[in-house]
Design a protein that fits this description.
There is one protein chain. Helix content is 38%, strand content 16%. By secondary structure, the protein is of the alpha/beta class. The strands form two sheets. The protein has a seven-stranded parallel β-sheet with strand order 3-2-1-4-5-6-7. Strands 10-9-8-11-12-13 form a six-stranded parallel β-sheet, sandwiched between helices. Strand 1, helix 1 and strand 2 form a beta-alpha-beta unit.
Length: 412
């Protein structure tokens, strides 16, 4: 039975930020399951359609003249690849709880969601920003079934600095508690995030990972100007680093200390860079930045590379970036820097590559040598990858929608 589903996310296509990929995959394949999808999103993502969905875009102070860091956001989003983005959070991020979207987007999203509530069977709110879940709270009060989807932990393994005031910490924890206890169904993208919610709130939580769209990876795209070097083993990192607290410094230090590796490997960085990252890469041996590429070229470059690189902070067990799943779909050997992370577990489970510590140059150099020696045998088998297709993941999300509708009906 097809349902009318409202999918609430500040970021959506055509944004190149990784958060938009979950929205794209779920909307497209939930539609193919017979559901009617409306995406409530923000102009910070740009303008344009979302496959399989009706799109409602609201204003957002993030892209207004009131945001004095707007140029930094444009660079982060890959729309202004020149001077680099500012990796440090805005000073206002230490003021507004739980995040800046509560000021910048929520005042515009809430009125629209109320207008969209009529005829809606269920709402899926996906975070971060975690304030987006407050839309779910508002619609639940109107009788709409609600699935809260956590792409990152809220207070669990948070990558934001600690709140400076006790009253802010209490409010942040109270909002998390209200969301987790109020939602009719809970979803997390990694098992550590799900396990934390189960333990702290005694709730059932489904794990539905991020994934990939197999139809995107079928495109044939030219790589003129950014093609990998023919005489070296190309290791590609696609996406942002400093914004999420990750750094290429240990990897580049490993190459600097091992001239034999630097002669055989070239590390490509495709994506927006901070000024510090750009300077670091330009001074490093065997490293090259190719800039921000559109999505088809990024996927083609992943498929053309000899190996693919996942950077983590090494501090968060629940860390598994969107790129992990796109890399799996590219079926190239993967090097994960971050032992004990969910990204490492997923890659090892799929037999798709090698894991090393995030911050040990000597161990990273050893892993690079293993990757060179094992590159022909480290490609994942199809059965280790297909479970992460959004065609499969959307079916799991559809089950959670039905669960939420049943729970909501029981409250009436």
């Amino acid at each position: 039975m097809g349902r009318s589903i409202l999918l609430v996310a500040q970021l959506s296509p055509p944004s190149e930020l990784s958060a938009a990929r979950r929205v794209a995959g779920l909307a497209k394949y939930l539609d193919r399951l017979g559901h009617r999808i409306t995406v409530l999103t923000s102009l910070s993502s740009g303008r344009g359609p979302v496959a399989g969905a009706r799109v409602v875009r609201t204003r957002d102070l993030m892209v207004s003249r009131l945001n004095w860091r707007r140029q930094s956001f444009e660079a982060l989003a890959g729309r202004a690849d020149g001077g680099g983005y500012e990796a440090a959070p805005s000073r206002l991020a230490s003021v507004f709880v739980p995040d800046l979207a509560v000021l910048g987007w929520l005042p515009f999203a809430l009125p629209r969601c109320r207008a969209l509530a009529f005829g809606t069977d269920a709402v899926i709110t996906t975070s971060p920003p975690h304030s987006g879940h407050l839309v779910g709270l508002a619609l639940r009060a109107r009788g709409v079934a609600w699935v809260a989807d956590f792409r990152d932990g809220w207070t669990f393994e948070s990558d934001r600095p600690p709140w400076p005031l006790a009253v802010q910490r209490e409010l942040d924890e109270g909002l998390e508690r209200a969301v987790v206890r109020g939602a009719d169904a809970l979803v997390a993208v990694t098992e550590p995030i799900a396990a934390d919610l189960r333990v702290r709130f005694d709730r059932e939580v489904a794990t539905i990972t991020n994934g990939f769209d197999p139809e995107e990876h079928a495109e044939d795209v030219s790589l003129d100007g950014v093609a990998p070097a023919a005489d070296r083993h190309t290791l590609l990192h696609a996406g942002r680093m400093a914004y999420a607290g990750r750094s290429p410094r240990p990897l580049l230090a490993a190459l600097a200390a091992a001239p034999d590796l630097a002669e055989r490997i070239e590390v490509l960085f495709a994506g927006p860079l901070s000024a510090e990252e750009r300077d670091l890469i330009e001074r490093a041996p065997a490293a090259r930045a190719v800039g921000s590429l559109d999505r088809p070229r990024i996927l083609a470059l992943e498929a053309a590379s000899d190996g693919l690189l996942v950077l983590t902070t090494g501090r968060r067990r629940g860390e598994a970036t969107q790129k992990v799943f796109e890399y799996l779909a590219a079926r190239r050997p993967i090097l994960v820097l971050g032992e004990g992370t969910e990204a490492a577990r997923i890659v090892e489970r799929a037999g798709a590559g090698i894991v090393a510590p995030a911050d040990d140059p000597e161990a990273i150099a050893a892993a690079l040598r293993r990757l060179l020696d094992a590159s022909d045998g480290a490609r994942p088998a199809p059965e280790g990858v297909d479970r992460y297709s959004y065609a499969t993941l959307a079916a799991a999300m559809s089950e959670q929608v039905e669960r939420a509708i049943a729970v909501s009906a029981g409250r009436r």
